[in-house]
Protein 1
Amino acid sequence: MNFNRNDKCWCGSGVKYKKCHLEFDEKLMELEAKGYIIPSRDIIKNQEQIEGIKKSSAINNGALDVVERSIKEGMSTEEVNKIVHEYTVAQGGIPAPLNYEGFPKSVCTSINDEVCHGIPSEDIILKSGDIINVDVSTICNGYYSDASRMFMIGDVSEEAKKLVEVTKECLYKGIEAAKPWGFLGDIGAVIQEHAEKHGYSVVRDFGGHGVGVEFHEDPFVYHYGKKGEGMVLVPGMIFTIEPMINQGGYGLFIDADNDWTAVTEDCSLSAQWEHTVLITEDGVEILAK
Ligand code: MF3
Ligand code: CO
């Protein structure tokens, strides 16, 4: 699509195209001609969308903060679900997981060898030594945000602590590697390097994703790969980085009882941390954490 230089820019800024995204489009077209994968215009957020996603993220962060303050031994994962649901609704948001492709609850709670998509239940009681991922996603005025944190319940083994710690480091190394005019592969490469250095493996079957106007948008964010490969990153892209790191192999299976929960094939522990990030003109901004 070509725009007249004096027309208003496609991004909705109200500014003339020549003074807004013209140079940006030319740079992308050049990269595309050289064979690079470039993002389509519909995944580049404008100011209004960014503001909306930030508001959604603020609710999402608040929900995780409440969980962080209250989660403890003896609590059921259904109670965690209730905390997230009630807080989100009270703040004017909608829990994005609820009824998403049939998901029955408002949050994912994944314990020990569960990789992701654990379903809260009154029958699942947190016990000392458990590590749990609480994955919260929020819709506010139609805008989506997504983040997850790990929590350690009571006395946790040194090896479990180490896994949780290294997985968080993987996330932050991935965020540091995310730069405008860099590549998606830069993120996956550093995550994979750090995880494997510790003898862990990176889950292949799930990845991060574009987020904001929908729950899951392009691109698929690999947590493994090679520097300089994959989609070019540009200002205005918003996506999650959410490495799932296993103590053993990366193989997993989906629990046949609920068709949702991913569990490690070798019963080894799995951890995950997730943030929603925005690529800016000069770096990266964390929105949901
Ligand atoms: N928060 C998860 C993600 O990172 C989404 C899980 S979909 C659900 O993509 F339905 F299980 F919630
Ligand atoms: Co996500």
Note: The helical segments are 22-33, 47-70, 77-90, 158-177, 184-197.
Protein 2
Amino acid sequence: MILSNDNLSNKLSNIIDSTTIFDMHTHLFPPSHKNFFLSGFKNLLNYHYLIAELLTATNIDASTFYSYNFEKKASLIWNELFEKRTPVSEACSGVLSILKELNIEINNKNFLSISDEYDNKIQSDKNILNYSNVSSLVMTNNPFDLDEWSLFKSTDWDKKIYLASLRLDDLILDYEEAYNKAKNQTSKQEQDTIVAYLEKCYQQSRPVYAAVSLNLANFKTIVDGSMWRNILAWLESKKLPLSLMLGVKRSVNKDFGLAGDGIGDINLKELSKLCNSFPKNKFLVTCLSLNDQHELTVLSRKHPNLRIFGFWWFMNQPTIIKQVLKMRIDMLGFSFIPQHSDARVTDQLIYKWSHFKKILYPILLEYYQNLLYKNFPLSEEILQRDINKLLFGNAKNFLGVS
Ligand code: FIX
Ligand code: ZN
């Protein structure tokens, strides 16, 4: 059926709401991986985005804050950011969106009663996946963290929902230690210890990509280092993309711990060189700084082996997304992966995706209205085809996931 201006907006909104999502970068784990699975109201408040806001908005000292137990930290964040202050930031707003979605009123209730009510409503990860309409997601799995990696020794979790990725930051952050771990896990005869270990990890976890976060200083290691040439050759042989998360500077404020990372420099000319030097490798790329977004989008028009994904961390702010999403569509059509959640607490899937869809909808509507105005025949099938690409198809195709 050909759509008109009268029914376009309804159809579009229904299609966006009903289409399932493939979330291509999260920090989530299945519930059976007990020490790593995070869910519930207190975990939601103990999020490093909120911790950074607390530590900068108040006079609370970081080491004092971190010395508190889990519940005290959560209640302090609630008190300082939601009671003493007005929770307008994106991270605060996310918590409120989840409470609203769960029909939890906050008026006249204290932290503990909200927390109890919340935890009674969220019973399992399936619950959250239903609320958020996420059908499968990619975890961040560090093969050099043997405790975390033990996930792949157990079978009591759903591998169709939780897909693996190989996070290789340790090879940059502490090569010696990573190398020794790899050596202990592989046989002495192996020529290339790191690749041999990655192959072993591949067999255990069947990852859908490898990933590394980088800045200008360590980007050169990837371009010039022989170890990375071997890794790239191995990834090519496995048809696995390398996901490059560019422009982070770790520990800008060491005292803040996980909440202390910031923005570092990056030179996207190096990325272009990488795409040219390794034309048979596929690169997923996201940049942390707003400054790099235009150049990254142009590069994505030039290199078929480069695919932009998501709005990473400091980029994941409504004002920025609106502007950059439009720029990406203007230059790339729908040939990019518009979002990933980066969720660390499973419950965050609910707000990260509902917030994104709230931005996506009016932007797409405007493009489609413009097409109708120019007499381009739009049908429900076309809309569904596009939304499929944006919410799961582009990512799955690039990763070769069915
Ligand atoms: O490197 C990453 O994958 C980042 O997403 C995280 O390290 C970061 O802490 C985060 O949670 C951002 O959303
Ligand atoms: Zn991440």
Note: The beta strands are 21-23, 134-138, 162-163, 166-167, 210-214, 242-246, 248-249, 262-263, 283-287, 306-308.
